[in-house]
Amino acid sequence: MIPAAFDYVAPTTVEDALAALAQYGDEAKIIAGGQSLLPVLRMRLNAPEWIIDLGRIESLRGVRDDGDAIVIGAMTPHVVVGSDPLVAEHASLVAKAVEHLADAQVRHRGTFGGALAHADPAGDLGAPALALGAEFVIAGSGGTRTVAADDFFVDLFETAIGEDEILTEVRIPKRTGWGATYEKFVRVAHQWPIVAVAATVRVEGQAGDRVFAEARIGLTNMGSTPLRARAVEDALVGQPVTDDAVRTAAALAADGTNPPSDLNGDADYRRHLATVLTRRAVLDAAGA
Amino acid sequence: MTRISLTVDGASVSDDVEPRLLLVQYLRERLGKTGTVIGCDTSNCGACTVHLDGTSVKSCNVLAVQADGAEVTTIEGLARTVGGDDGLHPVQEAFRECHGLQCGFCTPGMIMQSVDLLKNNPKPTEEEIRLGLEGNLCRCTGYHNIVKAVQHASGQAEVTA
Q1: How many Å apart are CA A241 and CA A247, to the nearest integer?
Q2: Does an H or E element contain A274, and which?
Q3: Which end of chain B has fewer CB within 10 Å, C or N?
């Protein structure tokens, strides 16, 4: 219940946080909202000697319009992201995923960047970030660099963020007018999804003659990182918005995945679940 | 040790604390505010829910040092937020009226989260109440009267418990 002793520093600028990271090196751990880290520390699965708290760095909070993208500060709490009008208009998939992430108390405290940097394969934000082609802005002593979503998630709890670097913001290309649904399957309330599907689609045509123009689909907990269901995306384009067409495309959802087996279900169960949830998510995102 | 200063239930407090001290431990062990309880080891149960700068958080999942400069309201200070120093907050009253508890251990967290829920959604549906309280676990009642208490507090249900 009680974490091992550590020293604590709460810088007020990114520069000071980077300096603290450089000074304490691998003895330090960054805390954002702490909703994943504090349970880890309490169970003593990790015992860093220094905790660097980003909670006092105001410049890391908020959502802003940046032309063809929206930019979400890494320390923006989930509850703010979930109710932000820019997110709702241009990246509605993110709003949908945040809406039922964990529980209300965790959404008040947990942060967008913290959850992505934690890179839990069962976390709710990786698949939407991947599906939307997000770009991760990472600050280090030599300046900032931008990493594409395809290169950001490296492995279980591992990202492209270096030990001396800090994720400062996430740029999400606008997909205005796209439909979006985050369909997740949980065993009990407020738990991590056994499998979840993040789907966002652009549909063209009039009622009765609608076709998928574009589709982007991310999978949660179907491997050690979030994954794109590219086979489904490709199969949907040009197809009519009908139950049959979506069912046929969604059957490819588990292609190329390597889901875990655990008490909640084995890998085969997850592969099947991915096809079911993909069908539901795509149909719902298309307003069908 | 790190110096922290914050407001808890309307009173200014200041202490030197170990950085690893959890907010819930600070409230209970330093300030004697044992109305806020610890129900689990995993931050699942929500029994320790308090308001930090006006929004609900699980106080086992916040370091006391992170609350430096903040305003904390616990179940013990809830009534004074509506000017009822001697009485109960309307949500506390609703839980009493509807018998929204059995053993009572989850009740402080349930009430603090219900107040937060009603602040954002004054007339929630039953579904919205159940979703809004999903971070709070009750092992006695099956949630039935808890949900009814929140409906009653929002002026939507007659007392039938």
Answers
A1: 10
A2: helix A267-285
A3: N
What is the token pair recorded at A89?
Answer: 């208009």
Please provide the average confidence, as pLDDT, over all residues in chain A.
97
Which member of B19, B25, B134 has the closest CB to residue A8?
B19
**A156 and A199 belong to one structural domain:** no
**DSSP code at position B28:** I
The answer to whether residues A131 and A101 belong to one domain is yes
What is the rounded CA–CA span in Å between residue B125 and residue B11?
36
* pTM for the model: 0.96
- Best CA proximity match to B51, nearest among B42, B33, B41, B39: B33
CA distances from A67 to A64, A90, A180 (A): 10, 11, 21
Q: Tell me how far apart the alpha carbons of residues B14 and A192 are, in angstroms, rounded to a whole number.
A: 37
Residue in the structure block whose two tokens are 């940046």: A66
Domain that holds residue B96: 82-153
Provide the strand spans (E) within A79-152.
Answer: 135-140, 143-148
Question: Mean pLDDT, chain B, as a whole number?
Answer: 95
The residue with greater pLDDT, A207 or A11, is A11
What confidence category does residue B84 fall into, taking pLDDT thresholds of 50, 70 and 90? low
Domain residues for the domain of A257 are 179-285
For residue A39, which residues of chain B lie inside 8 Å, CB to CB?
42-43, 61
Q: What is the pLDDT of residue B161?
A: 52
Q: How far apart are CA A132 and CA A95, in angstroms?
A: 12
Q: Which pLDDT does position B159 carry in this prediction?
A: 64
A78 vs B contacts (CB less than 8 Å): none
3-state secondary structure of A142: coil
Q: How far apart are CA B25 and CA B18, in angstroms?
A: 11
Is A48 at the interface with chain B, CB within 8 A? no
Q: What is the pLDDT of residue A208?
A: 86
Q: For A30-41, how does the pLDDT look when each residue is reduced to its tens digit (9 = 90+)?
A: 999 999 999 999
